[in-house]
Amino acid sequence: MSLNTQEHFWSGDFGKNYTDRNSRHSDEFNNAYEVWYGISRTKMNQTFLGSIPKDIKILEVGCNTGMQLSELQSEGFTSLYGIELQDYAVQKAKEYTEGINIIQGSAFDIPFKDNFFDLVFTSGVLIHISPDNLSKVFSEMYRCSKKYVWGFEYYSDDVTSINYRGNEGFLWKANYGKLLRSQFSNLELIKEEKYPYITQAEKGNVDFMYLLEKRNA
After folding, report:
1. Of 2, 10, 5, which is closest to residue 125 (Cα–Cα)?
2. Domain coordinates of the chain in residue numbers?
3. Which residues contact 31 (CB under 8 A, 6 or more apart)?
């Protein structure tokens, strides 16, 4: 699958419908996590980022309307950036965020300098990148982060393709933390945790959060 095909899919009507379907204000956002996992996103974040200074510079890759960034802002983080492929989502983010730097950009070519951020993360984004293209996205995230790479994605021991609303080739699950570490030997695992879904419709599926630290030689 070419990058153009991947990006075209999310830039068009399918991506727009995804944005409309999944955008939530902060109170609804945390309530949804309680329903899905039995734990709020706030508590997840505190478990992984609780000891990290609030003034670090953070980038979310594929931030959509900025819900994850808004949540981090409510937890006290002050230097927040996001890139999002869809222009529609970037414009709509103005309804959901304030004081957060969200621009249009691609995960395949992140428009920031090397080591510009202290932490770069994704949440439900790597699962939509073709496995053939993951190494390029990993390289861009790694390049822009001087210390941490953080993620929250669908989990499977092996890379597994999933039919996504009648579309093949646009959703996978995998151990993304392990794949990142296999590409970059100086990424050290700081913490990881599995979060099984508790809703009947998603029973048996698991999401996975991981925090990696860049250890320079």
Report:
1. 10
2. 3-214
3. none
In sequence order, what are the residues at sequence separation of 6 or more whose Cβ sits closer than 8 angstroms to the Cβ of residue 66?
60, 82, 93, 96, 97, 100, 102
Q: Angle at CA 106, nearest 5°, toward 102 and 112?
A: 65
pLDDT digits 0-9 by tens, 195-216:
999 998 788 899 999 999 999 7
**CA separation for the pair 104, 86 (Å, rounded):** 7
Residues composing the chain? 217
Kindly state which CATH superfamily the domain 3-214 is placed in: Vaccinia Virus protein VP39 (3.40.50.150)
Among 55, 159, 72, 183, which Cα is nearest to 123's?
A: 72
Pairing of strands 101-104, 160-161: unpaired
**pLDDT reading at 130 higher than 90:** yes
Structure tokens at 144: 């822009």
Closest to 200 measured CA to CA, from 2, 35, 16: 35
Q: Is 155 within 8 Å of 194 (Cβ atoms)?
A: yes
